[in-house]
Amino acid sequence: MSEATVKATFDVYRFDPVRDAGPRYDRYVLDLPPHTPVLTALLQVRADLDPSLTLRYSCRSAICGSCAMQINSKSRLACEAPIGPELARDGRIVVEPMRNQPVLRDLVVDQEPFWREYRRIEPHLILDPRHPMPEGTANPMTPAEVDRFKETPRCIACAACYSACPAVEADPAFPGPMALAKLYRFVVDPRDQGQQDRLVKIQTDGLWLCLRCHLCTEACPKDVRPSERIRDLKELAIAAQGATEPGSRHALAFKENIRERGQLNEMKLARQTAGLPGLVTQVPQGIRIWRKKPELLHAPHPIEGADQVEKIYEALDDGKTKEDAP
Ligand code: FES
């Protein structure tokens, strides 16, 4: 008995920067079983319909990370994205190259910006010869020390997180989620002697540009959870150096503002973040806000039940989870 198939419509981004005036979308229609991965479908397009379609892949098993692309606007590994759910949700499959990296041709991007940030964090052990070998073992790390890496060793460097990241798009100084997750991995490695240097450097090297949108964690096919490791890095950086940067001062001021009154006091937040000299530079912006929305510059009215917020903070300080808090 032959396998049931569905009619699958693919709209595939095509662009050759050398020859084309601009990008276009070519439509291909195939009959395929619904479990067919998008990558297999694209390879069939190339074999049967259009040998000029350019894409990158290798393992076809979600290991090498080379087939990452935009599938119906989400950064995915094409070799593990079956067509059935995509068609059921959107009726067709739009395939595009990854974002935040220049297109070389069709679905292939130049990954140099992604790897440049990776190299910048020195992604290798700077071995500390003083790290003791646990007694009676040939392994230089204990299981508890390995656990501190969390999910970071799962990363296959597919750049799906980098493609999904609006902070990369907004500011090229942001190193990107993968580089920061890798940085975390070395910062918590007890064998590494570059930890402090790495932490100090990253404070002024884009750590605080993260927008906390968690789109990287949503996009990661290996559940590395980069946004959570970025949060951990911020905590480690403050613990190592104090709140020396506008980003860290803003994070602490935000926390204390909410603790005090259950809401933000924008004026106070700006002063605590930028300091008085910094506030002076923001005067023109303040005047614009005052003209359009003067209420934003007033001290907020006290809100009922604000004392409950303090109890949440106390519970969190006690190491309890939010769910345990009153
Ligand atoms: S081809 Fe290797 S991860 Fe998809």
What would you say this structure looks like, in words?
- This protein has 14 helices and 7 strands.
- 42% of the residues lie in helices and 11% in strands.
- The protein is an alpha+beta fold and 326 residues long.
- The strands form 2 sheets. The protein has a 5-stranded mixed beta sheet.
- α3 (112-120) packs parallel to α7 and α11 (246-261) crosses α14.
- The N and C termini lie far apart (60 Å).
- It folds into 3 domains: 6-108, Beta-grasp domain (Ubiquitin-like (UB roll), Roll), CATH 3.10.20.30; 112-131 and 141-241, Alpha-helical ferredoxin (Fumarate Reductase Iron-sulfur Protein, Chain B, domain 2); 255-324, no CATH class.
- Bound molecules: FE2/S2 (inorganic) cluster (FES).
- FE2/S2 (inorganic) cluster binds at residues 57-60, 62-67, 77, 79.
Topology:
Layout: E1 6-14, E2 24-32, H1 38-48, E3 68-71, E4 74-77, H2 83-90, E5 93-96, E6 103-105, E7 108-109, H3 112-120, H4 143-147, H5 160-164, H6 166-170, H7 177-187, H8 195-203, H9 215-219, H10 226-241, H11 246-261, H12 266-281, H13 283-292, H14 306-317
Parallel strand pairs: 1-5
Antiparallel strand pairs: 1-2, 3-4, 3-5, 6-7
Bound molecules: FE2/S2 (inorganic) cluster.
